[in-house]
Each structure stands twice: as C-alpha cells, then as structure tokens.
Amino acid sequence: MKDISLPHLNYAALAPMLILFGVACVGVLVDAFAPRKARYPIQLVVALVGLIAAFVAVVLRAGKVTAENAITAAGAVSVDKPALFLQGTLIVLGAVALLLIGERALERGGPFVAQAAITVGSDADQRQAARESGATEVFPLTIFSLSGMLLFVAANDLLTMFVALEVFSLPLYLLCALARRRRLISQEAALKYFLLGAYASAFFLFGLALLYGFAGGITFAKINESAQNGTGNITLLYAGLALVSIGLLFKAAAVPFHVWTPDVYQGAPTPVTSLMAACTKVAAFGGLLRVLYAGFDRVHWDYSPIIAAIAVLTMLVGSILAVTQTDIKRLLAYSSIANAGYLLVGVLGNSALGLSSVMFYLVAYGFTVIAAFAVITLVRDADGEATHLSRWAGLGRRSPFYATVFTVILLSFAGIPLTSGFTSKFAVFSAAGGGDQSWLVIVGVVSSMILAFPYLRVVVMMWLSEPGEQTPSVSLPGMLTSAALVIGVVITIFVGVAPQPLLHLTSEAANFIR
Amino acid sequence: MSLSPYVPIVGLFALAALFALFSVAIAPFVGPRRYNRAKLDAYECGIEPTPQPIGGGRFPVKFYLTAMLFIVFDIEIIFLYPWAVSFNQLGVFGFIEMILFIGTVFVAYAYVWRRGGLDWD
Known about the structure:
CATH architecture of chain B: Up-down Bundle
Distance between the termini of chain A: 31 Å
CATH class of chain B: Mainly Alpha
Shape of chain B: flat
Largest sheet of chain A: 3 strands, antiparallel
Structural class of chain B: mainly alpha
Helix content of chain B: 55-70%
Radius of gyration of chain B: 23 Å
Order of helices and strands of chain A: HHEEHHHHHHHHHHHHEEHHHHEHH
Number of domains of chain A: 1
Oligomer: heterodimer
Largest interface: A-B, 13 and 17 residues
Number of helices of chain B: 4
C-alpha cells in the first residue's frame, strides 16, 4: 500500500480561522456550563477577545506572506494578500456588528428571543417577549459564521469553498429566526433564506461536479491550467462556471438571484441584518473574485458579457425597486442589491485595479451599512423598531443629532463627494472604465442617480415634515451601539475625505496566489 | 476479468434484495396477528395526527432530536473507521487530529446534555 503523505499545515497562516473556530466552541461550552445570569457578559467578552486575537493574527501574518508560503493545508487554502485583507475586513466588520448584536440597553433582554420554538403569539410567547433575556447562543453562532467566511475568502479549491459556504450560511439561517419582536416574519425570513440558500448550494455543488469532469481536479490552479491548455470538454467548463457562479451570485444578492434579500433583510433582527449586509457581502464577493480571477482567468472574455448583463440588471432592478419601498429595512435591502451591481462592475475591471477597487468598495460600504442599521435599531416605540418610512417623518425635529447622523449615512449611500460612497463608487467605475467597460459605467451612474431619489426622499421626510403623533422617539443608545455607530460614521467620513491609506492598502493586497 | 471487483457488490445487492423479498413474503405466514386500535391509526412520527389544534400547535420533537444526534455520532464513526484502519501509517499526527475532532464533537454533545436534549420527558 502506498504511504500516506501528511499535509503540511502552516499554523501561522491558519491561525485566524482556528482562533475563531476555537472561540466559537468555547462559546458553546459557556452556554452549556455557565450559570444563566453569567452567560451574557462571558459570551460578549469571549467573542470580542477572540475577534481581537484573530485580527492580531491576520496583521502579524500580513507582514510575512509571500508567494511561496501562501498556499497551505495540501493546497486547500491560499492565505494570500487578498485573503488576508478580506479576512481582516471581515473580522473588523464582524466585531462592529457583534456590538449591535450584544446591545441590551435598548430593550429588556436585547434584540433576540429567549426560546425561538415557542408558538408565535401564544401567552408564553408574549411573556417571554416582555421579560426574558435573549438567547446567548447568538454569540457562538455569529463567530461560527465569521470563521466560515474567513475560510471562504481563502479557499483554494471548490470543495473547501463549498464547505466554508455552508459553515457561514447555516448559522445565519438560524440567526434570522431569532428576532424578539415580529416573530412571524422573522421565522418566515429564516425559512425563505434557508430554502433558497440550500437551492443555491445545490447549484454550486452541481457546478463543482461538472468542473471536476472538465479539469480532473478542483483546485483553481488545475482548472485554470486546463482552460489554458484547452484540454477537457469545453461545455463542462462553461456549464460548471455558470452553476458555480449562480451559487455565489445568490449570496451576493445579484439580480435575478436576489428575491430573498428584501424579505430576509426585513424579517431578520436588525443587528443580524447588519451582519448580513456587511460581512456576507464581503465574503460573497471575496469568493466570487477568487473564482473568477484565480480559477477562470483564461475564459474571462467568455463570461464577461454575461456578468455584465447581470450587473446591469442588478443595478437597475435594485435602484428602481428601491424607489417604491415604504419600509426602511426593505429600502436598504434594495440598496444593497444595487450595490452588489456596482461591485460586479468593479469585478469586471478584471485586473489588479478591479480587485483592489472591489475590496475598497467592500470596506467602505460595510461600515456605512452597519452604521445605517445601528440608527434603525434606535428609532423605536413601545412595539419595537418603527421601520415604516411614514414613521420617520419629522424625525429631524424630534432628534436632530441622530437625524443628522442618518443624513450623513444616506448621503454617503447616494455617493455625495467627501463621503466613502463617492470614493468607492469612483474606484469601481474607474476600474471598469480601465477594463474597457465604459458602457457599464454609464449604466452605473444612471442607476446611482435613480437610487439617490429614495435616499433623498428619506432625508426630506426627516427634516421638512412636522413630527406627528405617530413619530417615534429615538432611544438613547447603550455603550455598544454608540461604539458601533461612531466607528461606522467616522470611517464613512474618513474614507471619503482621505481615501489614500485605504487605497494604498488595497492596491498592495491586490494579487491572488493560486 | 476487468469486472471482477464488482462481482461481490452485485452479490451483496442480490443478497439484500433476496432478504427483503423473503421477509415480506414470509411475514403473513409466520407472524402473529393481534389487532388493536393503535394499529389502525394513521401514523406520524411523534405526533398525534388527529385531531390537530387549529393553526398548528406545539408537538414533541423528541424523535427529530434523536435522529439529529444520531447523525452527529454517525459522522463521527464514519471518520473513525478509516482512521483506525490506517492508524499505523498516520501515526502521532493522525492521533492528535482525531482527538481534536472527537473533542469538537464532544462540544456539541456537552451542549445537548446540559440543555436536556438527552432527557426523554
């Protein structure tokens, strides 16, 4: 029998993922053994310390990574510079979202339900909504999800990528179902997300099988090599690429794979929505970039027109449907779809510039969107968050400070200069222009102008309407939400005014190693 | 013969089919016949199928829980067998990896145990 060769594991490169996975396991044990009262503070501290440790591991690794030592674990993982940059981004965004998840000052017991299985609307359910503190399992679930995302952006073959996809998706499905208020749409959101997500995973897996048939291997290097040599059945290559892309574009919320987005964003607890809008976006585009740039570089001219068509559809459908929305969370969901379109435009730049501009956009958008959802958690009345747009009318008189903060965030979404929204859109559009996709830039600018209308309508409603009896008050945020809000807004403005440090970092990092 | 490795598999299939056919065919002749009400009821795992409360209601999920726990340990066993077979070649590395793997499974086990997932009532 042939000897089994043991894989070489570079623990320094794998450390961020291992730390987060270990911390999540510790979180499960805390929930099993710590007394009920002590769980929340222990979980919060464990999760935050774990995220900081993982971030330190990423930074330490970033100084030492070279083309030779990036690939490890028998070729399954490639911890190269883009992977490290995206991992660092995911950890920081995840930590900020975790601050929102951990907030318990806004309502008794926090934004999560204690027992999700109790029948919605029953007496027991109303009792627990009013009194019991939320489940502390949300912390390990969040960390599990983040550890999956870290692996997803570093996966060097399709099978590892699939496993990572499931590791980060499954906890998210659960988290969606745990809202304290409006339990029914929360459960509906979780079910829709789960069913459609499982469907998309099946597409991914089928594509993986076809690509194995094409290349005789599943690593990106092998697929790229086969495509370059012209060996293998070309139909399998195209069909496989299409199916794998469907799986990834579903997670990225691109049209026509976007239908879950508004319902899930609306139904999920707002802190979880912020996690999805920021981190899932980063992970999905990180994965998409690696598949298209590292695995399918050679067929770039073949897939470009199709991805371009999807980008156009995504930008237009996202921005036009955003105009008709009456719920602030759904509005941001459609805005997130349109932003997926802008990101796809950057992906089509298909160069180091395309890669760096997409990474830049992901950082800028992630912080702004978390800050936006942080404000949404604050605008509330006795029944929880007041998300209907009509309730936001006159908020400027009620609470000028938070209305100003939200106005800054919306202006950044609209792409007004001196905010991160402007610099990031400029980056992806110029990358696409450099990649001979000028017509996409024109569509992108038109779509941005359409999308500016719903944002500005909210701004006008907040400032120029009189507050009525329906206008809710803005709750005073706790320390955690304040911290998340400050981080989000400061980075939104900083990246808008002085984009150079971040641009430098992303262009340094823009080189995949397969 | 190039097909020879598949002959035992075909034999196994034939054996399985014969066993199933034999069991079904023999049962009416040798099985005892003791009728009671429960045998005539509609069957649904762990649930009283009728009457159900309007708009749903709570029903016990014990069987589902047991099935899910079974899957966890089933997967553990699937990994343990090949490791045990090639233990000599994998050496200390394989041993440590396996301990880590079993430790991770036990994290889930400890959680289920502490949360009362192993209590039937």
